[in-house]
Each structure stands twice: as structure tokens, then as C-alpha cells.
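**Reference record**
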Amino acid sequence: MGCAPNASHSPVFLLLGLSKTRVPHSFLFLLFLIIYLTTIMGNVTLVLLISRDSRLQSPMYYLLRGLSVIDMGLSTVILPQLLSHLVSHHPAIPAARCLAQFFFFYVFGVTDTLIIAVMALDRYVAICDPLHYASVMNRQLCARLLAFSWVVSILHTMLHVGLLLPLSWGQDDRGNVNLPHFFCDHRPLLRASCSDTHSNELAIFLEGGFLMLGPCSLIVLSYVRIGITILRLPSAAGRRRAVSTCGSHLTMVGFFYGTIIWVYFQPPSQNSQDQDMVASVMYTAITPLANPFVYSLRNKDVKGALRRLLVQRVDS
């Protein structure tokens, strides 16, 4: 195996993560096609409901609409290419497209984690300081927090793309770079490099860890304070209502943050490629699929808005 020059010399990457699976590719194609179409339909429906219904104009739904847009972007960056490779005998991707996929995957993924943390702050203000909720979590603040999340995620991604560009890549006999994964993810790219990747690993643990520590701390502190407030509520009905408003968000926090920490913040020697791929499927395919249903099926306002929209369509 030779060592190719850096990515600017355009090696070809082969995404071989699903090539050795015993599951028929036709079944995987159908499965991921259903997941992708359902993800797009679910999130588009949620965006339209929040945009059209006057009862869904609170800051929580404004943030949820932004989360749905990001989830659609995250799925679109990964799944269409995966579907094309499942019907191809040569799952190749040029270096420029591979780095572009990595860039947009990181931007959408990091923005997702930051907005989930902002939603925890929203729940904190709503439950712990309800009298000032409308004035504190106003539309302007939410827009600024969303913009800040995008800026931070883009700067974070540019750092890691810049660290990838100088690397050389281990080539096979045909001059291709083999990636044992189904998309251009960070860990598989580092494993495929024959350069010293200590600076890349250090950036993941230090800069990436710091970036994760902030949102995680915000979520934990918010829910500790929320828990204390709920325990002090005098009525059981009030406690149930407060818990129900947080249940959907907590479900997705555990799901999304858990898989990301599993993949990116274990020592490389303890990460198996198969485990990484399973976890990657969870946060690139299953989480964007689950978000609109978790937030809508447990939410009376969203279900009411959907019923009103369907009644309007039937009457028209």
C-alpha cells in the first residue's frame, strides 16, 4: 500500500463500510430510502405546521423549526449518496466531494448539538421563570442564538477541514483510498491516513471536547434547576405537565449526545469500526427521522395544528 499526497491532489476514496455486510444491498437500499423519505416528509410537515399555525409561534417552536431544517440537511448530506452507493459496484467519491460531505456533515451535526442545548435553556426559562419567559426568550434572542450556533459550527468545521488537508492517504494497488465506512466521517478519514494524525486527535479531544462540554454543561445545569423547580410544585398535575414538556427533549438529548460521545470521544484504540458505523447510523439517519415524531406525538399543540391543517384540506 502506497501513500498518496494530500487531498488537494484528488485521490479517490472508496466507501466500503457496507460492502462486506451480509444483509442484501437491495434490502438496505429500501430501508434507507424509506428512512430518508420519511425524514424529509416528517420534518417538512413540522416546519410547515410551525410556520402556518398561529398557535405555534412560541420560542420553543421557533427553535424546533430550526432543528427540523438542520435535520433535513444532515440526512440529505449522507443518505442520497449512501443510496447511490448501495446500487453501485464501485462506491467511489472524489476527494473534493468527500471533504465537502465532511464539511457539511460537521456543520449540520455541530449546529444540531448547539440548538438542542439552546432548547434546554428555553425549557429552563419556561419552567423556572414562567412570568418572564416571553420577554427573555423572545424571537430576537432565539434568532441570535441560532445564528451564533451556525457561526460556531462553521468555524469549528473549518478548523478540522484545515487539519485534514495536509494529510497523506494510504492507497491500495489501484491508487484508491479505502474508507471502511459509509460516508466521509472524521475517524475513518484519520484511520486511512498514513500521516501523523496526533494534531487531529488532539483537536478532537481538546477543541471538540470543549465545544461539547459547553452545551452538555448547559443542558445538565438547566435540567438540575428544572428538576428542583418541579419537585417544589404543589400539585401533581403541575408536576406532570412540567415533566411532559421536557420528556421529548430529554429523549433526543440522550440519543444524540450519547452516540456522538461514543464515536468521537473514546480513545481510538477502544473504537471498533463496526460499533462506529452503528452509532453513525443512529445520529445521521435515525435521530433526524425520530425528531419530528418524538416532538409531535407527545405534543398536544402540534397534534392540534396537524388536525386543523387536515380539516382545512378536506373542507377545501
Observations:
- The mean pLDDT is 84.
- The beta strands are 2-4, 12-15, 92-94, 169-171, 176-179.
- The first strand starts at residue 2 and ends at 4.
